[in-house]
Amino acid sequence: MKRFIKIICLAFAVLLVASIPLSAANSYQTYTYSIDGTPLDSPDAYTPILTVDSAYMGLKEPISDPRDLEVDEDLNVYIADAKNNRIVCLDRYYKARTDISSDGKNFGYISEFVNEYGVKDKLSTPYGVFITDDKIVNGEHVEGLIYVCDTGKNRIVIFEKDGSFVRILDRPTSNLFEEGSIYKPVALAVDQYDRMYVVSSTTYQGIIVMTSDGVFTG
User: Fold this and answer.
1) By CB neighbour count within 10 A (0-12 exposed, 13-18 middle, 19+ buried), where does 147 fall?
2) In DSSP terms, which residues pair with 216 in a beta bridge?
3) In angstroms, what CA-CA distances link 44 with 84, 96, 108?
4) How much is the pTM?
5) Which of 201, 99, 206, 113 is nearest to 164 (CA)?
6) Which candidate, 162, 163, 172, places its Cα nearest to that of 196?
7) Tens digit of pLDDT per residue, the chain (218 long)?
8) Which of 40, 61, 144, 167 is 20 to 30 A (C-alpha) from 188?
């Protein structure tokens, strides 16, 4: 009788283990450190739900050296793909966008454009990207913009959300910059008043603040 009870208990234990969801065992193990630096297991800080790679995005040329990522108010995703000299534009489902810009180009990425002088131009090693939201100004609807730190060419390039070129902002001028100093923007943010806050990897004085026209203010 005792042997029969043991067999029943063992079978119940096997069924119980088999019923545990596999996802719980497959989550990434996270850890912290004790006061003496010993790694200690900790509750999972996050649980991955999706892995997105270039194949999932539907890109013919895989992303290489991604430097920055931004999401707009419509949940479109923008990735600064430095080595490929482009901004990759994805929809809310992380697929390369297939709509067409006003100049007839596929909006899956931003790379080449015609500048204000009517000359063909292109991005070079973009490190940063920032998207501003649409807003109402004096009762009129103003669409947001795409700001790109075109690091390889020491400038900021601004585009409309359909990928159309708007303008280029070169190195700001100020007596605070040392003579011969190099301006190399790698990240930026824009506030609700269109003031830009730019991080230059070669500027040690601090974050550069500029107006929407690229005029240095501090």
Assistant:
1) buried
2) 210
3) 35, 31, 35
4) 0.77
5) 113
6) 172
7) 544 444 444 444 444 434 444 444 455 678 889 999 999 988 887 788 888 999 998 988 999 999 999 999 999 999 999 999 999 999 999 998 887 666 666 678 899 999 999 999 999 999 999 999 887 777 778 788 999 999 999 999 999 888 889 999 988 777 667 666 777 899 999 998 889 999 888 877 788 888 888 777 78
8) 61
